[in-house]
Amino acid sequence: MQTVPNQAVANWPLWRKLLFRFFFIYLVLYMSPWLWLGSLPVFGTIAEYYALGENWLVNLGNQYLFHIKEVLVPLNGSGDTSYGYAQLCLFLTIAGVGTIIWTILDKRRNYAVGYYWLLLGVRYYVALYALSYGIVKLFGQQMIFPTLSALATPLGDFLPMRFSWFFIGYSAPYQFFSGSVEVIAGLLLFFRRTSTLGAFVATSVF
To answer: Residue 79 and residue 89: Cα distance in Å, rounded?
Structure first.
């Protein structure tokens, strides 16, 4: 109980403030909580315009800065596309520029409260994804067994993601094992006392 007030008045070193500012901006952009609320009538319009604005910035940044590909392949259930890489570059760029502006304008001693809520949000975000993907794997529904046409395809013609999916889908016990570990990681992350162990388990399985 004594650590909370001490953290609230402690003066963070500059490097810790810079890291917090950078990762706060990046992680909020990456998790995009307003898009999660897009199904609600109140936030539907906000989420729609945000998605349009983000798409415009990703294509603009790719055209003038990142040059991932001339025509970006959109997200299709996986982030392993040229659009996904351009989006990642955009988030990193915004986080870097935002950190500089934030540092110039903000002179507070620490971000103990913001750090607490950011950590909580990231925990639940990772936990929800770990549970959703893990439960699907338990029933063998994420990585399917290779079809006959896939088995007849030369390995060099597979995209890296597709090749890895067939590799896991070929072995039902392996998929079940990886799914069970993801479920365990998600459950551990839901509780504060087991969150550190959950983070290590999630890191190992991901």
So the answer is: 13
Distances (CA, A) of 8 to 5, 13, 119, 175, 192: 5, 14, 16, 45, 20
Structural domain containing residue 41: 11-110
pLDDT, tens digit, 9 for 90 and up, residues 32-73: 887 777 666 767 778 888 888 999 999 999 999 999 998 898
Maximal C-alpha separation, the chain:
65
Cα–Cα dist 89/72, whole Å: 13
The dihedral sign for the CA sequence 44, 49, 51, 54: negative
Boundary residue ending a domain (110, 130, 156) = 110
Co-location of 138 and 196 in the same domain: yes
CA distance 58 to 46: 18
0.85 surpassed by pTM: no
Q: Does residue 5 surpass a pLDDT of 60?
A: no
Token pair listed for 103? 């540092």
Contact of 137 with 175, CB cutoff 8 Å? yes
What amino acid is encoded at 19 in this protein? L
Residue located via tokens 């338990």: 138
